[in-house]
Specification:
156 residues, 11-stranded antiparallel beta sheet, 8% helix, mainly beta, single chain
Length: 156
């Protein structure tokens, strides 16, 4: 294949993946990322899926959420923020074919709106598993919530 043909094919491939930006009715940016044609759609209306990095914003302009989407599914690291711009949560998502969802998996950290750590622990298939530490807004340990969890239930 000639260099010219390869360059043309690469351009056409990139042209199929455009940047999409959504806005709230007042003109504030709502979401931004890339869309790609869904080959399984075969010309249906709405035959596009989100791919790659995506971000969402609150109406006040602060970021709300950011992460990666592959084939329309949330995967990899995801971060959420409060409307004041303070980080709210961060952790991994992994697609689960049996439930057709992308539950939280692995280590997740949550913060209070004031920036202090609220909770830290591991998810398995979207359920808390193992030891979880919880703290109050002043940073002190929350003994009622801290402990061992299995299938999202605290073990006494």
């Amino acid at each position: 294949m000639s260099l010219r043909v390869a360059a043309t094919l690469a351009f056409l491939g990139l042209a199929a993946c455009g940047s999409e930006v959504e806005y709230y009715s007042d003109g504030a940016r709502r979401a931004e990322g890339r869309l790609a044609r869904d080959r399984a759609a075969h010309g249906r209306v709405g035959g596009e899926r989100e791919i790659g990095p995506w971000q969402w914003w609150f109406p006040n302009g602060e970021r709300r959420e950011a992460g990666t989407i592959e084939d329309g599914k949330r995967v990899g690291e995801w971060t959420q923020w409060y409307p004041n711009g303070q980080r709210r949560s961060r952790g991994q998502r992994e697609f689960d074919a049996s439930t057709q969802s992308s539950p939280r998996t692995g280590l997740w950290t949550y913060w209070h709106e004031n920036g202090s750590i609220l909770a830290r622990g591991v998810y398995r298939l979207g359920l808390r598993e193992g030891h979880w530490d919880y703290s109050r807004e002043d940073g002190s340990l929350d003994a009622e919530l801290t402990g061992e969890y299995h299938a999202d239930r605290r073990l006494d």
